[in-house]
Amino acid sequence: MNLLSQKIVDLYAEFADIKNLFDQIAIPVASAEMTLEEVFDSLADQFFRDAGFTRESLLSVMNNIIAERKKEPADSDFVLSSLTILGGFDKDGKKEDFSLDLHPGDCYAVTGLTGSGKTQFLEDIEYISFGDSPSKRKILINGKTPSEKERDELENHLCATLSQSMNFVMELSVEDFISLHIDCRKSWLSPSGKKSLVSDVLDCANTLAGEKISRDTVITQLSGGQSRSLMIADIALVSDSPVILIDEPENAGIDKDKILRLLSSKGKIVLVSTHDPVIALSCNKRILIKNGGLFSILKRTEEEEKLLEELRTFDSKLKEVRNCIREGNHVRP
Q1: 279 FRET partner, CA 20 to 30 A, in 27, 83, 110, 273?
Q2: Angle at Cα 202 formed by Cα 51 and Cα 75, nearest 5°?
Q3: Neighbouring C-alpha atoms within 13 Å toward the C-beta of 257
Q4: In whole angstroms, what is the distance from residue 21 CA to residue 249 CA?
Q5: 212-260, pLDDT tens digit by residue?
């Protein structure tokens, strides 16, 4: 589809989410008979800057909406029963001698020194690597090698990813942002169901964030911790991706213990790259990365379970002290 040549009236009729998007960022349309290109040409560069878009990024968002709506029925029927990671090579070219099977409900911590290759490990999964990444690892879906067509279809739907650095570019309120994603992912919801889900996502985010998030706040004004909290709640409650990849969530100052409890309760495969001992020990298993290669897989011991409870108590106390200082109060023993 040549999107720019389409009339607005036709786009609105076929894709309600595009109309919602135009309404939310207040794109002026003089006539519904105009083509998208004519509408774009009528907009000043300042309008795009104020809306937090470029012409190209807005087209990309619209194309994603259309792609989501036009998925073949077979795509929506996809069920992930297993994800297998076949070993590649470390940074010195040494072969990784392992095959790791992951199943819904599994929660793994990915650990290792800074620069050891944890992020690359997550990216191999995210992009369904088949020997075409620096590590040369291969990813199997439900025990089979996905075809190139299947990889293309699954690449944007298999994993929900939260990276170390993230920046919003759209000038939307928190409520509008959540609503837009719900429109893309769960268009079948009734207006009341959508309204309820928006509230659920916001309430969930506020159990994780240090400072409360208002539904009227513009998302570009959220702090790092608030942004992470919002996206984790969105991933848990709105996204239908069966695999969740999170890269170092502890850096944002959010309730890290609640993160894993929330995500692991959704029956998805969860992998968290972390340096934090509470997060690492909260997972039943840990994947250790050294020099770019998978070095070992450790199962949590009984001694570590006992230590975890002590660390949680200490971490809770540390959180109280941190909040006390943030609120400008004196710290009491």
Answers
A1: 83
A2: 75
A3: 10
A4: 30
A5: 899 999 998 888 888 888 988 898 888 888 999 988 876 555 777 777 7
